[in-house]
TrEMBL record:
It comes from the Bacteria. The keyword Protease applies. Binds to the N-terminal domain of the chaperone ClpA. Involved in the modulation of the specificity of the ClpAP-mediated ATP-dependent protein degradation. It comes from Ciceribacter sichuanensis. Coiled coil: none annotated. This is ATP-dependent Clp protease adapter protein ClpS. Belongs to the ClpS family. Residues 18-96 form the Adaptor protein ClpS core domain. PANTHER family: ATP-DEPENDENT CLP PROTEASE ADAPTER PROTEIN CLPS, ATP-DEPENDENT CLP PROTEASE ADAPTER PROTEIN CLPS1, CHLOROPLASTIC. One of its GO terms (molecular function) is peptidase activity. InterPro entries: ClpS, ClpS_core, Ribosomal_bL12_C/ClpS-like. GO terms for biological process: protein catabolic process; proteolysis.
Amino acid sequence: MPQNDTGLNTVTKPKLERPRLYKVILVNDDYTPREFVTMVLKAVFRMSEETGYRVMLTAHKMGTAVVVVCTRDIAETKAKEATDLAKEAGFPLMFTTEPEE
């Protein structure tokens, strides 16, 4: 360990940056039933029935809704999982990710 003038050992800790956060965004469409959207939000994002319904309604009214904000890997994994679930059921429901400002 390096010693300074006072004879005490000094330790420098590297400053760690927090990872950049990403938003998972639910994109509204005119084909996917509301109940299915709510079910996907509950299954993939572990939302309650009430929260899932609120997020679904926000996307329905505004065109998009932020579902969750998390690290990039988790955001991309969740968005793909939710989109794939809809695709398997024959719905065009889409989730995207983008960096949070």
